[in-house]
Specification:
With about 240 residues, this protein is an alpha/beta fold. It has helices spanning about 40-45, 70-80, 95-105, 110-125, 140-150, 170-185, 195-200, 220-225, 230-240; strands at about 1-10, 15-25, 30-35, 55-60, 65, 80, 155-160, 190, 205-210, 215-220. Helix 5 (about 140-150) packs parallel to helix 6 (about 170-185). Bound molecules: adenosine-5'-diphosphate (ADP) and magnesium ion (MG). Adenosine-5'-diphosphate (ADP) binds near residues 16, 38 and 39.
Length: about 240
Amino acid sequence: MIQFSKVNKWYGEYHALVNINAEIAKGEVVVVCGPSGSGKSTLIRTVNRLEEIQEGVIKLDQQDVHAPKLDLNKFRSRVGFVFQQFNLFPHLSVLDNICLAPVKVNLMSKRAAVDKAMALLDRVGLAHKSAAYPQQLSGGQQQRVAIARALAMDPPVMLFDEPTSALDPEMVGEVLSVMKDLARDGMTMACVTHEMNFAREVADRVWFMDQGEVLEDSSPTKFFSRPTHPRAQTFLSDICSH
Ligand code: ADP
Ligand code: MG
C-alpha cells in the first residue's frame, strides 16, 4: 500500500531522510518511533507530499506520490492525516467539519455526507456532539473528530503524527482506543507515536528511526525484547527509565 524506494530528502544541506527502503502492506499497522529530530514527521509527511523528496520513489496504492502531474489537492484530501494539533475549522460545527471535504471535493450530496458523518461520529463515540463547535470539546474529543473527518474521505491509508502528544494524559486512552478499533477493522496505518504500549499491542511492525535512517524494521515482539541496533537499545532503555 505504501512503498518507499531509495528515498532521500534534504532540507538545504541537511540530509533528513537517508536512503529509505520500506513498505507497508494493505491492512498493516506500522509504528514509527525514534528520538526527537530523527525524521519521523518528515518521513510520514512525504507520503501525502506535505514534504517533497529529492531522490527515490514513494508509491501509495500504486500511485507515484511525487509524480509532477499529480492533482495534489485531490490526492491529499484522500489520504487521512491526523496531526498532533487537532486543526479542526473553529468556525464550523463538528458535523460541518466532517462534511466539508466530502461535499466540496467529492461532490457528495449534503444529505449523504451528513448520514456518513453521523455514522463516523457514532464510531468515534461522539454522535451527541455533532452540533458542537471545536472549542466546546476537550482535546481528546477534538482529536476523535479529526479522525472521523479524515475517515469521511474513505482514505486508503491513515497517517498519524503523534496524535496523542498534545493531549492531557487522561485523554490519551480514548484516542488510542479509536485507533485500535481502526486497526482491528483492517485500516492500513502509519503511526508516529511514543505510546509503546500501543506499539506492542497494535503494531504489526515497528520502525525505529535515527538521524534520517530507518535502522530497524521488526515485529513488536522482536523490537521490544531484542532490538538489533545499539541505538534502538539505547532509545528503549531511555524510554523505560522514564
Ligand atoms: P522528528 O519528527 O523525528 O522529531 P523531523 O522529521 O521533524 O523529526 O525533523 C528531522 C530533522 O529535520 C530535524 O533535524 C529538523 O530540525 C529538520 N527539519 C525538519 N523540518 C525542517 C524544515 N522545514 N527545514 C529545515 N529543517 C527541518
Ligand atoms: Mg515529529
